[in-house]
Write a structure and sequence with these properties.
Blueprint lengths: L16 E5 L7 E6 L12 H9 L2 E6 L1 H19 L4 H4 L8 H15 L2 H20 L8 H11 L3 E6 L1 H10 L6 H4 L3 H16 L3 H8 L5 H23 L4 E6 L9 H7 L3 E4 L8 H6 L7 E4 L5 E5 L4 E5 L4 E8 L4 E9 L5 H10 L5 E10 L2 E10 L2 E10 L2 E9 L8 H8 L2 E2 L10 E5 L4 E5 L4 E2 L1 H7 L4 E10 L4 E10 L8 H12 L5 E10 L2 E10 L4 E10 L2 E9 L3 H12 L2 E2 L8 E4 L5 E5 L4 E3 L12 E7 L4 E9 L9 H9 L8 E10 L2 E9 L5 E10 L2 E10 L6 H8 L2 E2 L13 H7 L5 H11 L9 H9 L13 H12 L3 H9 L11 H11 L2 H13 L18 H4 L13 H16 L5 H4 L3 H15 L9 H14 L2 H10 L5 H13 L6 H9 L1 H13 L13 H13 L5 E14 L2 E12 L8 E11 L13 E3 L9 H19 L1
C-alpha cells in the first residue's frame, strides 16, 4: 500500500474523480484516485464514476496486476530453487529467542552491521505480516479497488491496460526494506490498525488536501523521489500516449494525485485541462456489479498438449526447475482467485506414490483434508490445504507415466467452495500424448575448456550463479531436471577471482564432504585421484528421506573448479542416465587468447600478456599500500593471473652472496613443505635475475617466479599455473619478455647493513625501532658481525624492563646463539659484572643467553655466574624456559642451584625444572633433601599469597610443578603444604594436590573432594582418578549420579576453545545403539560471549550410557556437539539422529 505523498496545500475540491480534456484530445479521459484495500467503506462510488467508466473506451490501472503477480510468483519459485544450493553460513540466521522487540533489534543490527540479506528478508516478512493482519480484518470485498474496476471494464468488453510496466514496479519491490524503520517494525497490531483506520477515514472524505496534510511528515525526499516523483512522470507519459488513442479511465493510487509533482499538476503542466467531477449519488457496488454480464472463460492447454481446461483469463507460464515443469497459471484479480494446472511426466509405476508424496511431504503446507477422487476418468487424490497465507484445493490425477496437477484457491477459505473453483475442476479434459525421443545435447563451453552432455538443452541458471557468487569466486551454472527419468543434473564452474588461488586441493575437496554431511545418510564412494593430470574428487551416497542417490565429481584445473552434481532415483534407468552424464565430461584444450606487449600505466615495465596491466589494491605483511605496487593482467580463459609486484628493497636487506639476496626476496613465496623444482639464473634484456618453479605440497597449481633488482626496487614476476602448463609457450612469453623500461644499477646488496640495523634498534622513533626489530631475526649475520652484536647487546633498550620473547634483547640472544661461536662465552664472562645498579636485572638476560647456546661450556659458565654472582635484582626478568631445553645439561646445575630455591626471582623456575628432572629420573629426591627447607619456606609464602588471590589470576600450571615437587619429596612438611594447597580457591590446584595426597596414602578432607566434584570441569576426572587408585568410595555421593556425570562429560567436550556460557538439559533418549539399549543425554549448549552474532548454540549429545543408573562409565564415548546446524528446538530429535549418522560414518571411514 503506497504511502501518501506530500503536496502544497490548496483548496482542492473534495473528489477523487477528475476529467481530462483539451490539448487536442478527441474524447475526454478520466482519472480516479484509488486506495489498494478491500474495505467496503471505500467502495462507496458515485454514479458519475460508473457513468464515465461505462463511457470510456478503455481502462488502465497503475500496473497490470496479472503480469505483476505472475512475475512475483516466478521470482519466488526461482529464489526458492536457488536457496537449496546457498551456502549454509550465508543462509543460516540464528533463531532469536525472547521478545519480539529483542528479535527486531538483533535483526536490525545484522542488517546495519553486515547488510545481512537473510535478516533483511525476515524483517520485511515481519512487517508484511503486521500489515496483512490489519488489512485482513477489513477485507469485506473480494478484491482491491483497482481490480474491482478492472472486472467491470472486462465485463463491458473494454480495452484493458496499465500506465506502468512490471519492470517499473519490481525495483520498488526490491527496495522495500532498504530503509528499515524500527518504529514501524515494533508497532503493535492495534497501532497499525489505528493508522490504517485513520487513512481510510481521510480517504473516504475524498479530501486530497487532508491526505497531503496527513502524509506530509511521513516521508523523506529520497523515498518520495523513488516511490512517487519518478513514477508520476512515467504515468504522465503513458496517460498522454493512451488518451490520444482512445478515451481511457485511469485508476491510480490517490497518493499520486496531489502536490507539485502529483499527476493532476503534471497533466496541467503538459497542457491538459483537469477538472473535478462532483457527485451526490452513491449506488451500492454489489448491485451494480450484479447487473453486468459475466466475462467469458477461455479454454487452455498445457505445453505437452496433454489436457484442456477452462480458466477465467488467458494463462501465463510459470516454470520450475528450468523447463522441467511448466505450469499454466491464471489469476482472476476481480475475485483474487488463482487457477493453476500442470502435466508432469514421471517414471512408470511411480505415479500413485508421487501424488501421495506431493500432497503430504511439504513441510510448509498444512493439509486440512484429503480424499480419493476421480475426475474425467482418472483417479487420484484431492486435498484442501493452507500455505503462504492462501487456501487452495488441489487435485493430483494420474495415468501411465503422467501426473496431472489442478489447483485453485485464494486468501479466503470460502473461495474453495465457489462456483468458479468448481467450474475449473469440472472442465478438466485429459488428452493422449506421444512425445518423440530427443537426442542428447552437448553443452560445450569452449571459453571454460570443457563439455558435458545433458538429456536435453539445460537451463543457464543465472539466479543460482548470483546466489553462489562471492568475493572470492565467480560461477557459471547449467542445470536440468528430468522428471520422467527422476534425475537432476548440474554443471557448476567456479572461477577464483583475480589473485586468489587454490592453495590446497584436498582442503577444497573437503568442503564437499562438509556440505553434504547432513544430506547423505550413507557414503558409498569417497575417492580422490587424477583426471588427465588434474586432481579429481568423487563423492557418492544415499539419502534415505528422499530415496535419492547423490553423485558428485569435482575437478580442479588451476584456479578453476568444475563440479558435476547429480541426484536421482536409485533405479537402473535413472542411474544409466547419470552414468552417461558423468562419462560424457571432457576437458577441452584452452583457446589461447591473443597476446601483445603491454606496458604498465606508470611506464616502468612491460611484458607480453593478454590484457593491459592494472594496479591491484592490496598490501603484503609489513608493507603499506604506498610501498607496494601490485600489477595484474588476467587470462580469463585459463583463470591464470600474471602478476608483477614492485616493492622497495627493504631498508635492512643485504646478503652474503649474489644468490643470497635472490633467496631472501623469494623466501615469502616458499612454504616449509613446498618443493623447489627449478631454480636458475636468468637474463632479461641484459638484466640478471633468478627464476624458481615451486610445487606446493597441497596443490597442483605451481608457482613460477622471476625476481629482478633494479635501482632501489625489487620486481617479482609471478604466475600461478597448473603443473601441466607451467612451461607452455604463452606463459613463457610473460616471463621471457618481461622488461624494466629504464633499468638502473642495483644497490650494493653485498654490503652489510648490520651496523645501521643495530643502531636503529635504539632509535627514538618508535616506527624505526620497530622496523629494525622486525628485520633482526632474518638478517644474514655472520660471525664477522659478532663484535657489533656484542656491542648492541650491551646497550639499553626501551623494552628492557621485562622479559619478552619479542623484546630486542631476547631477539639479540637468539641471533647470537644461532651463530654458535665460543667468543660469546668470553663476552658474557667479561661483561656480566658491568650490569649493575639500574641494569642489575639484565644479568638474568645474560644468563638466558648462555642457556640459549646449549653447550656444556655455556652451562658451566651459567652455573658459575648464577651461584657466585647471583643477580640481586631481577625486576620482571626470569630464567628463560630454554634452561630446560636439554634436561641433561640442566642436571649439571644441580644440586647447587637449589640454594636459590627460596628466592622469588628463581624459585618458580627452579622448582619447575627440579620436578621435571625428578619425573624423568635424571636426579633423585635425595639430592634435593638438603635444600628442602628452602623449598618449604618459599612454597609456604607463595600459598599465603594465593589464598588472597582471585582464582582467575592464579597460574595453575606454575603451581602444578611445585605441587609435584612436594609430592616427590614424601616428607611430613611437604604433605602439610599439599594440604594447604587443597584450600586454594582454584579447582585445578585443589585437584592436583588432593590426588597426589591420596596417591601417597594421605588423608584428604571430604569437603575438599566435594568442592572438586561440584565443578563440572573436574567431576569426571575426579571420579576416574579415584577409580584408578581404588578409592572410588571417597567420591561424594551427592554427585554420584549418571546425569551429573553426563553433565561433566558434555561440559568437557563442549568447552574446547570457546567458553560454555549456557548449558541446559533437554531430556534423555533411550535407543538401540550397536545392538544394545543405551541412554543419551541431550543438552542445549551456548558457546561464546559478547554480541549475539558471536554466540553459537548447538545440540549437545552425551553418551552412550548404560540404562543401569548406577553405571557411570562409558566404554566408547561419542559425546559431542552437532554443529552442522544451529540449535533448533523443533529439530532436537532430527539433529540427534543426524549426529549419530555422522559418528557412524566417521568410524566407518576410520576402519
Amino acid at each position: 500500500m503506497p504511502l501518501l505523498l506530500n503536496a502544497q496545500k490548496s483548496n482542492t475540491p473534495k473528489t477523487l474523480l477528475w476529467r481530462i480534456s483539451g490539448n487536442g484530445l478527441k474524447k475526454d479521459s478520466y482519472l480516479y484516485g484509488t486506495m489498494h484495500v478491500q474495505d467496503k467503506r471505500v467502495f462507496n462510488f458515485s454514479d458519475s464514476l460508473y457513468h464515465y467508466l461505462e463511457k470510456a473506451d478503455g481502462y488502465a490501472m497503475e500496473v497490470d496486476l496479472r503480469d505483476f503477480i505472475d512475475t512475483m510468483i516466478q521470482r519466488a519459485i526461482t529464489d526458492h530453487e536457488a536457496e537449496f544450493f546457498r551456502d549454509d553460513e550465508e543462509e543460516t540466521v540464528s533463531k532469536p529467542s525472547g521478545k519480539k522487540n529483542a528479535t527486531i533489534d538483533s535483526l536490525l543490527k545484522l542488517v546495519k552491521d553486515k547488510n545481512d540479506p537473510a535478516s533483511r528478508k525476515r524483517l520485511i516478512k515481519m512487517r508484511e505480516a503486521l500489515v496483512r493482519m490489519s488489512l485482513k480484518k477489513r477485507a469485506e470485498m473480494p478484491t482491491i479497488m483497482d481490480a474491482w474496476f478492472y472486472g467491470i471494464a472486462r465485463r463491458q468488453g473494454k480495452w484493458l491496460g496499465s500506465v506502468e510496466d512490471v519492470r517499473d514496479q519490481l525495483p520498488l519491490v526490491d527496495e522495500v526494506g532498504s530503509d528499515m524503520d524500527e518504529g514501524s517494525l515494533k508497532s503493535s497490531p492495534a497501532e497499525v490498525g489505528r493508522t490504517l483506520e485513520n487513512m481510510i477515514q481521510i480517504y473516504s472524505s475524498r479530501d486530497l488536501d487532508a491526505l497531503y496534510d496527513w502524509a506530509k511528515p511521513g516521508m523523506g525526499q529520497k523515498e518520495s523521489d523513488r516511490i512517487f516523483v519518478r513514477r508520476n512522470l512515467k504515468m504522465i507519459r503513458s496517460m498522454d500516449s493512451l488518451a490520444r488513442i482512445r478515451s481511457v479511465f485511469f485508476a491510480v493510487g490517490a497518493a499520486h494525485l496531489p502536490g507539485d509533482s502529483g499527476v493532476i499538476k503534471l497533466l496541467r503542466d503538459k497542457g491538459y485541462t483537469v477538472t473535478p467531477v462532483l457527485s451526490s449519488k452513491y449506488p451500492d457496488p454489489d448491485k451494480y456489479m450484479s447487473k453486468l454480464a459475466e466475462a467469458p472463460w477461455l479454454k487452455v492447454e498445457d505445453r505437452d498438449k496433454s489436457l484442456w481446461i477452462d480458466m477465467p483469463t488467458s494463462a501465463s507460464d510459470i516454470t520450475m526447475l528450468g523447463d522441467a515443469l511448466v505450469m499454466r497459471y491464471s489469476m482472476d484479480i476481480t475475485t483474487m482467485t488463482f487457477f493453476m494446472v500442470a502435466s508432469i511426466e514421471v517414471p512408470e509405476g511411480a505415479e500413485s506414490q508421487r501424488i501421495k508424496d506431493a500432497l503430504n511431504n511439504n513441510k510448509k503446507v498444512t493439509v486440512l483434508s484429503q480424499k480419493e477422487v476421480e475426475n474425467a476418468g482418472l483417479k487420484g487424490l484431492q486435498g484442501d490445504a493452507f500455505s503462504n497465507n492462501s487456501y487452495y484445493r488441489i487435485q493430483y490425477l494420474y495415468r501411465k507415466g503422467r501426473v496431472y496437477m489442478l489447483m485453485a484457491g485464494g486468501e479466503k477459505k470460502k473461495t474453495l467452495e465457489s462456483a468458479d473453483v468448481a467450474r475449473f475442476f469440472q472442465s478438466f479434459a485429459p488428452r493422449e500424448v506421444v512425445k518423440p525421443l530427443q537426442p542428447w545435447y552437448s553443452q560445450q563451453l569452449s571459453e571454460k575448456g570443457m563439455s558435458v552432455d545433458f538429456p536435453r538443452k539445460p537451463r543457464h541458471n543465472r539466479q543460482m550463479e548470483k546466489e553462489m557468487d562471492d568475493a572470492e569466486t565467480q560461477h557459471v551454472v547449467y542445470d536440468l531436471t528430468d522428471l520422467k527419468a527422476d534425475v537432476y543434473m548440474m554443471l557448476r564452474i567456479a572461477d577464483l577471482r583475480v589473485t586468489n588461488v587454490i592453495a590446497s586441493d584436498s582442503s577444497y575437496f573437503q568442503t564437499y564432504r562438509s556440505s553434504f554431511a547432513s544430506t547423505i545418510d550413507s557414503v558409498t564412494r569417497d575417492e580422490a585421484g587424477l583426471w588427465e593430470g588434474f586432481p579429481v574428487f568423487y563423492l557418492e551416497g544415499y539419502t534415505e528421506k528422499r530415496d535419492v542417490l547423490i553423485r558428485v565429481m569435482a575437478l580442479n584445473r588451476g584456479n578453476r573448479n568444475y563440479t558435476l552434481y547429480a541426484g536421482g532415483n536409485p533405479g537402473k534407468n535413472s542411474q544409466a542416465i547419470l552414468d552417461r552424464f558423468f562419462q560424457s565430461f571432457k576437458l577441452l584444450p584452452y583457446q589461447t587468447l591473443p597476446r601483445q606487449k603491454q606496458t604498465s600505466a606508470e611506464g616502468n615495465f612491460s611484458s607480453t600478456v593478454p590484457k593491459p596491466f592494472y594496479l591491484y589494491q592490496d598490501t603484503e605483511e609489513g608493507e603499506t599500500p604506498l610501498q607496494l605496487s601490485h600489477y595484474v593482467s588476467a587470462d580469463s580463459i585459463e583463470a591464470v593471473w600474471y602478476e608483477v609486484v614492485k616493492t622497495p628493497i627493504p631498508k635492512y636487506m643485504w646478503a652474503t652472496s649474489d644468490s643470497g639476496y635472490f633467496n631472501m626476496a623469494v623466501k615469502a613465496y616458499i612454504s616449509w613443505d613446498d618443493s623447489v623444482l627449478r631454480q636458475q639464473p636468468v637474463v632479461n634484456n641484459g638484466l640478471k635475475g633468478m627464476e624458481w618453479v615451486i610445487h606446493p605440497a597441497q596443490s597442483h597449481v605451481e608457482k613460477r617466479i622471476r625476481i629482478f633488482f633494479s635501482g632501489d626496487s625489487i620486481y617479482k614476476v609471478i604466475a600461478y599455473i597448473p603443473a601441466p602448463y607451467i612451461n607452455a609457450a604463452h606463459h613463457n612469453a610473460f616471463f621471457e619478455d618481461f622488461r624494466i623500461v629504464k633499468p638502473e644499477k642495483k644497490a650494493d646488496m653485498l654490503k652489510s647493513k648490520a651496523s645501521m640495523l643495530l643502531n636503529d634498534l635504539q632509535s627514538s622513533d618508535s616506527a624505526t625501532a620497530a622496523e629494525a626489530l622486525g628485520a633482526l631475526w632474518d638478517a644474514p649475520f655472520t660471525k664477522k658481525e659478532l663484535p657489533l652484536l656484542y656491542e648492541a647487546y650491551k646497550k639499553p633498550y626501551a623494552d628492557d624492563s621485562a622479559s619478552s620473547y619479542y623484546s630486542v634483547r631476547s631477539q639479540l640472544q637468539f641471533v647470537i646463539a644461532k651463530l654458535a661461536d665460543n667468543s660469546t662465552l668470553r663476552f658474557v664472562k667479561d661483561n656480566y659484572k658491568f650490569f649493575t645498579g639500574s641494569r642489575e636485572s639484565l644479568k638474568m638476560e645474560m644468563l638466558n643467553l648462555l642457556a640459549a647456546i646449549q653447550t656444556q661450556e655455556s652451562y658451566t659458565l651459567l652455573k658459575e655466574l648464577l651461584l657466585n654472582n647471583t643477580p640481586q635484582e631481577a625486576g620482571d626478568h626470569e630464567l628463560s624456559y630454554r634452561i630446560s631445553d636439554s634436561l641433561k645439561l640442566t642436571a649439571t646445575l644441580f644440586p647447587e642451584i637449589l640454594k636459590l630455591a627460596d628466592r622469588p626471582q628463581f624459585g618458580d623456575r627452579i622448582m619447575q625444572i627440579t620436578a621435571e628432572l625428578l619425573d624423568s629420573n635424571i636426579i633423585l629426591p635425595a639430592i634435593v633433601m638438603p635444600y628442602a627447607p628452602a623449598v618449604y619456606q618459599y612454597t609456604d609464602s607463595i600459598i599465603n599469597v594465593l589464598r588472597k588471590t582471585d582464582s582467575s589470576d592464579i597460574e595453575g600450571y606454575t603451581e602444578r610443578s611445585r605441587i609435584h615437587l612436594l609430592a616427590r619429596l614424601k616428607q611430613p612438611e611437604a604433605y602439610q603444604l599439599l594440604q594447604k594447597y587443597t584450600s586454594i580457591n582454584q579447582t585445578f590446584i585443589r585437584m592436583e594436590a588432593a590426588m597426589l595426597l591420596l596417591k601417597n596414602e594421605q588423608k584428604v578432607e571430604a569437603d575438599v573432594l566435594r568442592k572438586i566434584a561440584a565443578d563440572r570441569w573436574f567431576r569426571r576426572d575426579l571420579y576416574d582418578s579415584l577409580i584408578a587408585m581404588g578409592k572410588e568410595a571417597l567420591f561424594p555421593l551427592k554427585y554420584l549420579t549418571q546425569e551429573l556425570m553426563a553433565e561433566s562429560d558434555m561440559y568437557n567436550i563442549a568447552y574446547d576453545e570457546t567458553p560454555v556460557t549456557e548449558m541446559e538439559l533437554l531430556g534423555v533418549r533411550q535407543i538401540q545403539y550397536k545392538g544394545e539399549l543405551k541412554k543419551f543425554y541431550l543438552y542445549r549448549i551456548q558457546l561464546g560471549e559478547g554480541d549475539e552474532d558471536e554466540v553459537e548454540t548447538y545440540l549437545g549429545i552425551a553418551g552412550p550410557y548404560s540404562v543401569n543408573e548406577k553405571e557411570m562409565r562409558i566404554k566408547t564415548s561419542i559425546t559431542g556437539l552437532y554443529t552442522t546446524e544451529a540449535f533448533d528446538e523443533e529439530k532436537i530429535d532430527e539433529h540427534f539422529e543426524a549426529y549419530l549418522k555422522e559418528i557412524a560414518e566417521y568410524y566407518d571411514s576410520e576402519e
